[in-house]
């Protein structure tokens, strides 16, 4: 009889312990992202580091760029320390999905498809997509002319998808410099990219044999993607962007890296 009672007591203790663990696990799972980053004291930011002037390494190999400074200031306004993680484009969203990054700051354009997977901050920049070709290329003058042509861009990027939507065969590359090199060498017919990125490249390489032949009619919204279901965190990010815009600092950062205001 004592053995039965002892066994029953052990079973009750185990059950209570399991119940306690379950409640703790549920409590942890219920923590929102804002409370998580606040307790951690840092904001994990995913970026490429290979796309000037948005995110790149300067001559001292320091990570710099428009997105780097904007994300840094967002973190600081939120009372957090920015921690950057560099990855190729297709790894940025995978890292966001897995929770490795809290946000991605990499000139991410808002699309209907991406809205299905992520919530987006208010826009902090606006850009037009342009077609870039070698200066002696007279076969491409519009997006419709991309049909049957070969383009180079980061695979799964907005530019790659847009080129493919017009019938182009998109070749994958790792950086803007690689993309431009393929165009200059005539190994691809064209590339698509942000107009401001092209102008920045030409500022550094004024003799590059390149030209723009077409651009989108309406500017794309550049925003910060966040995992869905984090309204408090998203509000904090939006408040930081609004503060940067109202103070004029957002424009100053844009002028520093683009020589123009891409934030309006």
Q: Can you put this structure into words, describing what you see?
A:
- The structure is a single chain.
- The protein is an alpha/beta fold and 264 residues long.
- It is built from ten helices and 14 strands.
Salient structural properties:
single chain; 264 residues; alpha/beta; D-Maltodextrin-Binding Protein, domain 2; 2 domains; three-stranded parallel sheet
Integer average pLDDT: 89
CATH superfamily of the largest domain: Periplasmic binding protein-like II
Number of helices: 10
Given the C-alpha coordinates, what overall shape results? globular
Oligomeric organization of the protein chains: single chain
The low-confidence runs, each spanning 5 or more residues with pLDDT under 50, are 1-30
H/E element string? HHEEEHEHEHEEEEHEHEHEEEHH
State which percent range the strand residues make up: 15-25%
Distance between the termini: 80 Å
Largest sheet: 3 strands, parallel
Helix content: 40-55%
Count of the separate structural domains: 2
User: How many E strands?
Assistant: 14
Please name the CATH architecture of the largest domain.
Answer: 3-Layer(aba) Sandwich
Strand order of the largest sheet: 4-1-5
- Which structural class is indicated by helix and strand composition? alpha/beta
What fold name stands as the CATH topology of the largest domain?
Answer: D-Maltodextrin-Binding Protein, domain 2
CATH classification class of the largest domain:
Alpha Beta
Gyration radius over CA: 24 Å
């Amino acid at each position: 009889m004592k053995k039965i009672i002892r066994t029953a007591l052990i079973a009750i203790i185990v059950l209570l312990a399991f119940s306690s663990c379950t409640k703790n696990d549920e409590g942890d799972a219920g923590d929102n992202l804002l409370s998580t980053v606040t307790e951690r004291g840092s904001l994990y930011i995913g970026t490429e580091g290979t796309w000037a002037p948005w995110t790149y390494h300067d001559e001292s190999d320091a990570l710099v760029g428009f997105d780097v400074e904007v994300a840094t200031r967002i973190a600081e306004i939120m009372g957090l320390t920015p921690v950057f993680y560099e990855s190729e484009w297709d790894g940025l969203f995978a890292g966001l999905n897995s929770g490795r990054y809290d946000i991605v700051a990499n000139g991410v354009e808002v699309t209907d498809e991406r809205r299905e997977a992520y919530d987006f901050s208010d826009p902090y920049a606006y850009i037009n997509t342009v077609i870039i070709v070698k200066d002696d290329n007279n076969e491409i003058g519009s997006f419709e002319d991309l049909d049957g042509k070969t383009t180079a861009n980061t695979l799964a990027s907005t530019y790659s998808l847009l080129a493919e939507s017009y019938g182009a065969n998109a070749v994958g590359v790792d950086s803007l410099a690689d993309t431009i090199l393929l165009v200059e060498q005539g190994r691809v017919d064209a590339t698509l990219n942000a107009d401001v990125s092209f102008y920045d490249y030409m500022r550094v390489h004024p003799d590059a044999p390149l030209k723009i032949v077409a651009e989108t009619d309406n500017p794309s919204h550049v925003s910060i993607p966040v995992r869905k279901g984090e309204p408090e965190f998203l509000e904090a990010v939006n408040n930081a962007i609004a503060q940067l815009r109202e103070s004029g600092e957002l424009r100053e950062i844009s002028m520093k890296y683009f020589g123009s205001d891409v934030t309006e």
